[in-house]
Specification:
2 copies of one chain form a homodimer.
Chain A: E1 4-6, E2 11-14, E3 25-28, H1 31-39, H2 46-58, H3 65-76, H4 83-97, H5 102-128, E4 137-140, H6 157-164, E5 170-174, H7 181-192, E6 196-200, H8 205-210, E7 216-219, E8 223-225, E9 230-233, H9 236-246, E10 250-254, E11 259-260, H10 276-279, E12 280-281, E13 284-285, E14 292-293, E15 298-301, E16 308-311, E17 314-316, H11 320-327
Parallel strand pairs in A: 4-5, 4-7, 5-6, 7-10, 8-11, 10-16
Antiparallel strand pairs in A: 1-2, 2-3, 8-9, 9-15, 12-13, 16-17
Helix pairs in contact in A: 1-2, 1-3, 2-4, 2-5, 3-4, 4-5, 5-6
C-alpha cells in the first residue's frame, strides 16, 4: 500500500491519524498544505515527510528566490527531528533556484525523491532479508513500513522480502504510545499483507524477551549520526537496552536520506509535542486535565546497542563511524 | 482518599475504571458482587483486592461449611496472580468455620484485615521515608497508592510520609498501558494530595533515565517470593532493567500480606487478560479488530534488579532469601 497518490497533477495523502478505523485522503496543493500535514501528523515517517515536503515546495505559487526560500524555511520547521525533511526541501530548493524552468524542475525533483525512496526501501529489504531466518519472531516499534515511506518501508522491508521468498515470519508490533503508530498503522498494513502480527502494549517488551519469545528487533530511524547514534521514535532506546540484556539482535533500517554526517548529538533538537497527545486518546480523556506531561517524540540510542544497520547501500557492522562514512 | 467506604453495615467501593473523569460508587453486598468487582477491575491493587474479597466472603448468605467453602473458592478465582486475594479469603474462611457466630466473626475478620492493611501502608511509608531525599524525582509504575490499598498506599506511602515531613518530592507516573492505572489513578490521587506529578507514556522511561531525570524508582508488588522474585504490573521488569543500567535505585514496596513463602516462580499463574483491553480505549478502537494480542497483566522482576524491599516490617536488603524469610 502507498500512503501517497500522485497522478502527475494532484497529490493526495492518506490521513494516518484516522487509521485503522477510517481511510480518508487529503489533497496537498501548496507548501502550506504540506506544512500542516507534516506538523499535525496527517502523514509521518521520516522518508514520507521528506517526500511530502518536497512536493509541498514544488507547489509554491512563485519561484522568485526570496519567496521560495521563505517557503522552504517554513517547511523545514514543520517538524524538527527527522533529517529527511530538511534534506528533501533543500534538494528541491537548490534545483528550483538553479533552473530556468523552476516549476517543472522542482516538481521533477520531488518525483525523483519519491521514486528514489521507493527504490531505497526495496533495496533495504533485499539487503536485510538474509538476516531473517525462517520462523523468526521479529519485534518492531512504531511504524517504519509502507505508511512511513513508499511501498516496502524501512524496518518492515526485510520482512516483506523474506515473506516474498517464502520465509515464515511472525511480527510483534508495539503499540507505541502516545500516537500509537504500532497499534494503528503497523498492524493495519501487515494484516493487509497477510502477515502473522501480534500487538503488545509498550509495557510488554521486557517480559516478552524474558520469555524468549523474540528473535530479532528491527526499527527505523529519523536521523542517524556518523558515529552511529540513532534518533528514532520514543521508546526505541529502552527496547535496545532490553534487546542487549537478552542477547536479541537489534537492527536499525534506514535509507541514506536519513543519514546526517554534518551535525551531532549535541545539536539535534528532540521534538516535544503537546500534552494533549498523552491526556486524550481519540477525544476521550484518560488523565487529569491539569497534569504535567513530558512528551518527547523521539529518543537516542547509542551505537553500542545496535547490532547492525540495514541501509540501501548494504549492511553496516561496527566499527560504525568508519563503516557508515565509507558506505554513505 | 479511601477507595472503600464501610459504615459497619454497607460496603461501597469507588469504580476505578471510570477515574479520573467520573467518581461512581458501587455497593458490594455479596460474594458474587465482590467477585465481579475484582474480576472486572472495578477495584484493583493487591491489598485492596484482599480487603474487598474478605468482605465479600463475610457477606455470604450462609456459613454452612460446604457453602462458604464454595464461595471462598469462587472468590479466589476472580484474579489469579495477587497473593493477597487467597490470603485474605483464607483468613475469613478459617475464622468463619471455626466460629460459633460465623456471620459476626467473619465480618470482624474482614474489618481487621482492612485495618491491618491501612496500618501496614502507613508503616511502609515510615520505613521507606528515609530513602527519599529532599528534591528527589521518583518514578513509579501503575498505581500502588491509596487506590490500591487503604490511605497511604504501598509504593506511594514513603512519598506521602516524606512530604508530611517537609521534603520536596517530584513524582513521575508512567501511563501503564493497557489499563492506564498510572495516567488515570496515580496522577489523580497525587494531584489531590498536592504532589508535583508528571505523566509520561510507557515509552519514555528509558529516555528519561538517559537524561538523568530520575533519582529513584518505587513500585508495588502483587506477589513476592522468598527468593526475592517480584510479580508486579506488566512493565515493571523493563523499568527495573533500565534502572539497573542507569544506576537508579529500584525499590519494591509491599505489605507482608503480599509475601508468598510457599510457592515459587514455576507455580505462579501470570494472568492474561482480554485483547479488548488493548484494542479499545474508552470505547474507541485503536487497532484492527482482528489483530492478535498478547496481554499479560503482570511480569516478573528478578531479585538482582531490586535494590531493597520496603515492607511494614522494615527495609530488606540482599541477601534477599535470608533477609525476607527472617523478617516476614
Amino acid at each position: 500500500m502507498r500512503p501517497v497518490k500522485w497522478d502527475g497533477k494532484e497529490l493526495w495523502v492518506l490521513d494516518q491519524r484516522l487509521l485503522p478505523t477510517r481511510e480518508k485522503w487529503v489533497k496537498i496543493s501548496s507548501p502550506e498544505d504540506a506544512f500542516k500535514a507534516i506538523r499535525d501528523m496527517v502523514i509521518r515517517g521520516a522518508p514520507l515527510i521528506g517526500v511530502v515536503a518536497a512536493f509541498g515546495l514544488a507547489f509554491s505559487d512563485s519561484f522568485e528566490k526570496d519567496r521560495v526560500k521563505e517557503k522552504a524555511e517554513m517547511l523545514k520547521k514543520a517538524r524538527p527531528t527527522a533529517i529527511n525533511l530538511a534534506w528533501a526541501v533543500d534538494r528541491v530548493y537548490r534545483r528550483a533556484v538553479s533552473s530556468k524552468n523552476p516549476k517543472v524542475d522542482a516538481l521533477r525533483e520531488a518525483e525523483k525523491i519519491m521514486e528514489e525512496e521507493e527504490r531505497r526501501a526495496r533495496t533495504i529489504g533485499e539487503y536485510g532479508e538474509p538476516l531473517i531466518e525462517n520462523g523468526d519472531v521479529v519485534l518492531t516499534h512504531c511504524n517504519a513500513g509502507s505508511l512511513a515511506t513508499i511501498e516496502y518501508g524501512t524496518a518492515l522491508a526485510p520482512l516483506r522480502v523474506a515473506k516474498e521468498k517464502g520465509k515464515i515470519v511472525k511480527v510483534i508490533a508495539t503499540e507505541t504510545r502516545p500516537v500509537m503508530q504500532g497499534a494503528r498503522l503497523t498492524t493495519y498494513e501487515l494484516l493487509k499483507d497477510g502477515f502473522d502480527v501480534t500487538l503488545i502494549s509498550d509495557t510488554v517488551v521486557g517480559y516478552l524477551m524474558y520469555l524468549r519469545k523474540v528473535n530479532k528487533v528491527i526499527v527505523g530511524a529519523d536521523r542517524v549520526f556518523r558515529d552511529g547514534h540513532v534518533v528514532n521514535k520514543i521508546g526505541t532506546y529502552q527496547i535496545a537496552v532490553l534487546a542487549k540484556r537478552h542477547g536479541v539482535p537489534f537492527y536499525v533500517a534506514f535509507p541514506s536520506s536519513t543519514f546526517d554526517p554534518h551535525t551531532n548529538l549535541k545539536n539535534v533538537e528532540i521534538e516535544e509535542r503537546s500534552p494533549l497527545e498523552v491526556i486524550y486518546i481519540r477525544g476521550r480523556r484518560i488523565a487529569p486535565k491539569n497534569v504535567k506531561v513530558f512528551n518527547p517524540a523521539f529518543d537516542i540510542t547509542p551505537p553500542e546497542l545496535v547490532t547492525a544497520f540495514i541501509t540501501d547501500k548494504g549492511l553496516i557492522y561496527p566499527p560504525f563511524e568508519k563503516n557508515l562514512t565509507k558506505l554513505l
